[in-house]
Amino acid sequence: MKLALNGATTMKADLETDIRIAQLAGFEYVEIWAAKLREYLKSKTTAELRAFLNTANVKPYSINSIERITFRTGKEQDLLLAECDELCKIASEIECPYIVVVPSPLPESMSRAETVHHSVSALRELGRIAERYCVRLAFEFLGQTGCSVQTLELASEIVGQVSRDDVGLVIDSFHFYTGGSSVESIEALDPGRLFIFHINDAEDLPRHRLEDRHRLLPGLGILPLREIISALKRVGYDRVASVEIFRPEYWERDPLELAIEARAAVASIIEQA
Q1: What's the rounded mean pLDDT across residues 201-227?
Q2: For 14, phi and psi rounded to 5 degrees?
């Protein structure tokens, strides 16, 4: 697997810093945090960003993310479509292949069948926008209670029904664990449908108590990373493993030091698997 640094890991650093430290730490790719991207583009252009990435010899892998894409109506739906168009255009201009899209919380009394229907409809509509820019959408299920799509099994069913080559999946090891997904659900995947693997670890807490702030560097927690990575290898996944950690304690650290430690940690766990 190739290695990427996700901008959430270094949340307080700006985009140029993320790119620079990714290069210095030995990452091949960056996942660009959308808020950092918008801040960068207040004073600079996509052409300048593409040139900076090329100079650093770091490739953009995805833009993170479009949130709450399901169950929107009216003006909220219009805003969603406009955001998708905006980010797809930028992704195309900087040669970034993927945009991460995230489902909404589950409305009260919404059935599984209704969730699938609304999710498929939303992804198809966004996929038609992405197609115009030759960009792909990576659908990321969230394992915490209250999310409408909590497991890889359900996310895979939805993406299968979307039936578009430009819509695929994200597996995040934290959400994989908190939502109770199984290794067997990885082994049932078409690897061509898996676009991104977010790797992280977590503190030793009951699943229902785990929050993003409890994430850790790979190898420091209790997530079954070796089992997950071994299953990914068995199905032939050979795209990117991206370090995505929402831990406020890490955001206060020197970003280069953190990036170097993160790369060593993820490389070690992948080798062990």
Answers
A1: 97
A2: -85, 175
Q: Which phi and psi angles does 50 have, rounded to 5°? A: -60, -40
Going by C-beta distance under 8 Å and a sequence separation of 6 or more, which residues neighbour residue 257?
A: none
Nearest alpha carbon to residue 114 among 179, 170, 70? 70
Looking at every residue in the chain, the average pLDDT score rounds to 98
pLDDT at 86: 98
Q: How many Å is the Cα radius of gyration of the chain?
A: 18
**HSE on the CB side for 225, CA within 13 Å?**
27
Q: Could you tell me the sign of the dihedral formed by the alpha carbons of 60, 195, 9, 83, in that order?
A: positive
CA pair distance 200, 248, nearest whole angstrom = 14
Q: What is the pLDDT of residue 111?
A: 96
| CA 65 to the chain's CA centroid | 7
Long-range CB contacts (within 8 A, 24+) of 150-153? 150/175, 150/179, 150/180, 151/179, 151/180, 151/181, 151/185, 152/176, 152/179, 152/181, 152/182, 152/185, 152/186, 152/189, 153/181, 153/182, 153/185
- Give the separation between CA 175 and CA 160, rounded to whole angstroms: 20
